[in-house]
Design brief:
Layout lengths: L22 H49 L7 H33 L12 E4 L2 E4 L8 H10 L8 E5 L2 E5 L4 H27 L12 H25 L5
Antiparallel strand pairs: 1-2, 3-4
Helix pairs in contact: 1-2, 1-3
């Protein structure tokens, strides 16, 4: 006996119609997508069981059939029935997978032009360094938010550590061990930065030592000085008025 599955028909927009997507509609589609994904996993398990049942029957049917012929015991060939069961489950699974792909594409198309219905009249929550915009009229959209995080990696907070007067907060994680790793890394980074700045501040200025003057350098300086003085006398002599 074949099993029945629920199929939800989604209305198609008229051709040429490009209206802004509604979050409530997307929430319904995302909820149905979650149901379909759950059904797919259930039907995969049922199909695997049916295929195994068919395999086991085929492996011993020839022996059972021969035993029946030799003993006159009744034998019922279940192969056609089991094959039909496998075929039906395969068709139902394919139908669910097609519906999943269709729903996913419709949700993505809707998200490409969605209008977020958040409060815009100052009804926001400002906590510490965060500003939270609530959806209007207290609406909640858990299914579509789950889709956004899972499929688009959108809305997932980055992992970072903040220091408050009351303590240290690890943002973006809910598992204690992972949060502890981030906290340890942050404290070690703090130690490293403080040590680096301390050593930089305590480092004395390096005096630039002049090279030691050699006797030859002294002779060259004296010759250069005498040459400069002689040049000055020549210039001064030229500027003097001629003798009468």
């Amino acid at each position: 006996m074949s099993e029945k599955i629920k199929v939800t028909l989604v209305e198609e927009p008229e051709k040429g119609e490009e209206k802004a997507a509604d979050m409530a509609r997307l929430e319904k589609q995302a909820s149905r997508l979650m149901e379909v994904e759950k059904l797919i996993e259930e039907f995969k398990a049922k199909l695997a069981d049916a295929e195994e049942e068919l395999k086991q029957f085929k492996s011993k049917s020839q022996l059972e059939k021969r035993f029946s012929e030799l003993t006159g015991a009744p034998f019922r060939d279940l192969t056609p029935e089991l094959e039909q069961k496998v075929k039906t489950l395969q068709e139902q699974l394919e139908g669910l997978q097609s519906e999943k792909a269709k729903l996913r594409n419709e949700i993505l198309a809707g998200l490409s032009r969605v209008v977020m219905p958040v409060e815009t009249d100052g009804l926001v929550e400002n906590v510490e360094e965060e500003v939270f915009f609530r959806f209007r009229e207290g609406a909640r959209y858990p299914a579509i938010v789950s889709f956004l995080k899972r499929e688009l990696k959108f809305g997932i907070p980055p992992v970072y550590v903040t220091v408050n007067p009351e303590g240290i907060k690890v943002v973006g994680l809910t598992e204690r061990t992972l949060a502890l790793k981030e906290l340890v890394a942050a404290i070690e980074n703090l130690h490293s930065k403080a040590s680096s700045m301390l050593s930089h501040a305590a480092q004395p200025a390096i005096a630039v030592q002049k090279p030691e003057e050699t006797p030859m350098d002294k002779i060259e300086k004296e010759e250069e000085l005498e040459s400069n003085i002689a040049g000055l006398f020549k210039k001064a002599k030229k500027r003097l008025p001629p003798k009468p």
